[in-house]
Every structure is written in C-alpha cells, then in structure tokens.
Specification:
297 residues; alpha/beta; Rossmann fold; 2 domains; six-stranded parallel beta sheet; 10 helices; binds guanine
C-alpha cells in the first residue's frame, strides 16, 4: 500500500492562513510584528532559506528585513548589532542564520539574543525551559515536526521515536520536546549519532523515525519498521545531469524504496522545510503579542 505523504507545504499554508487572520485581527498598521534575519556567510543555500522565510513573512503580514554581513564580520561586531536589535521596537523576532563562520562562537551569539525575541528558541534560557517543560519559544524545526504529525492525527504518546542526529537545532531540542509528560508528547526517545554502532538496530525498532544528519539517501528500506512513520529533515544537493540546474534536492531517506514499506513519510522538498518556516512565523507573532501586551483571547 502507498504511504500517506505528510504534506508540509499544504499544512504550512493552512497555518500561514491562520497566522494571517490573527495578525489582521490583533495588530494595526502602526504596530506590525517584525522579524530581522542576519546572514553572516556567503552560502547560497542560507540565502535561499532566508529569502523564503522573508517571503512567507510578507504573505502573512509580518514586516521583515535581512541584514547581510560579510564573512569577515567579527564576533564582537555581530554581538554589537544584536544588542542594538534587542532594543529596536520594530523587531519582535531576531534570527541569526546558521551555520556561522568558524571564527564566530554560535553559542555565544545565541546567548546575546534577547530571550523575548529569540524566535529560533536557541538562547540557552529557552533551551533550558524546553528541557524542564516550561513555556518557551520552541526551535522551529522540532516544533514543525510535532505540528505536522499532530495535524495528521498521528499520536506520539507511548511510541518509540528514534532521532538520527544530535544537533542543537534539531536532534537535541526534538528529543526534549518528545519526552515531555504531555498529551502531545510522552514518547520513548532514542538519539543516534555518528558514534552509534549498528544504527539499524535502533532504526528498525522505531515507530517514528526522524533523520536529521545531512547524508543523502542514507536511510534504506531494510532499516525501517513496517508501517512506521518516517520524517526526513535532510536537505541535500546531489548531482543530477538530467536537470537544467545540474543538481537536485534529496533528503536523508531513500524515499522511493522506504516509502514502499512505511505508513507515513515526508517528501523532500515539501515536508519539514515549509513547517519550519510556518513555526518561525508563529513564534514571531507570539513574540510580538507578548512584547506589545496583546492578549490572544
Ligand atoms: N540553519 C538551519 N536551520 C536553521 C534554523 O531553524 N534557524 C537558524 N537560525 N539557522 C538555521
């Protein structure tokens, strides 16, 4: 039987429509939610991601701006800019696109972003709150994954969730989210990473499997359990001579073969990616409402 495609593009559009009407109802032309995104690298992929984030902002009525800085920008210059933006009333959300150049300490940068404007949820205050189950900004990709599966009616409670990848952006916060004692979570979680031996021993026992390691088509059919749910966070460019661009985008999952065995699967592109953006918009509006004292009743 064909699996159900978890259509992130479609669900993200539904969420964007919800956010658009929330903004129309709660904000005026004088006070609009605002997001500033900082790019400190010359990575074309990062620029594409940021452009699609700001395009989505415009669609729902969020004011947004991208600040592009040269790769030579020092850590202290970036810190000074973030401190200024923390005080700037036009922006309720601040995002620093990762990866940063190696001479800049990413953890130090995340600490500087005001927790109230930290719509990525990467500041250690928000990360700590996530771990202890306090209300906070949840990192957008983990939040998007949970939202996607819950909108398809897939329960997580009591399931074995296996995550491949231990990044601070996806793997660790997703694990923290899934283990919470709440109706939307309450899963048993295993994290696999580059030090895991015989990864297939873990992946084969997963009810819900999340791949987030950036290894094109790593996950094969013999590594998944029948009728399981597969969530592919990977976005990898591989050579494709048949395409005009000379490359194509694939995930960490060998989609064609794995999809024959599982019950739900996310496509790449069009799965997790659009959900990440939808959650960024949601967090930005929440930040703007809190900062502006607007209640959501
Ligand atoms: N790089 C890859 N994903 C993300 C994300 O969600 N936020 C930021 N700031 N950088 C990223």
């Amino acid at each position: 039987m064909n699996p159900v495609n978890l259509d992130g593009k479609l669900i993200a559009q539904v969420i964007k429509n919800e956010i658009k009407s929330l903004i129309e109802n709660k904000f005026s032309d004088e006070v609009k939610p605002g997001l500033v995104a900082i790019l400190v690298n010359d990575n074309p992929a990062s620029r594409i991601y940021l452009n699609s984030k700001t395009k989505s902002c415009a669609e729902v009525g969020i004011y947004s701006k991208i600040i592009e800085l040269p790769v030579s920008t020092s850590e202290s210059e970036l810190i000074d800019l973030i401190k200024q933006l923390n005080e700037n009333d036009k922006f309720h959300g601040i995002l620093v696109q990762q990866p940063l150049p190696p001479h800049i300490n990413t953890n130090r940068i995340n600490e500087i972003i005001s927790p109230e404007k930290d719509v990525d949820g990467f500041n250690p205050i928000n990360m700590g709150k996530l771990l202890i189950g306090d209300e906070c900004f949840v990192p957008c990709t983990p939040a998007g994954i949970l939202e996607l599966i819950s909108r398809y009616g897939i329960a997580v409670d009591g399931k074995h969730c296996v995550i491949i990848g231990r990044s601070n952006i996806v793997g660790k916060p997703l694990a923290a989210l899934l283990i919470q004692k709440s109706k939307r979570a309450n899963a048993t979680v295993t994290i696999c990473h580059s030090g895991t031996k015989n990864v297939e021993n873990f992946t084969r026992s997963a009810d819900i499997l999340v791949t987030a390691m950036g290894f094109p088509m790593f996950l094969k059919e013999n590594m998944v359990k029948e009728n399981s749910v597969v969530i592919d966070v990977g976005i990898n460019r591989i050579e494709d001579r048949t395409s005009a661009k000379g490359y194509k985008i694939v995930g960490d999952v060998d989609f064609e073969n794995v999809s024959k065995k599982v019950s739900y699967i996310t496509p790449v592109p069009g799965g997790v990616g659009p959900m990440t953006i939808a959650m960024l918009l949601k967090n930005t509006v929440e930040a703007a409402m809190k900062i502006s004292g607007i209640k959501n009743v």
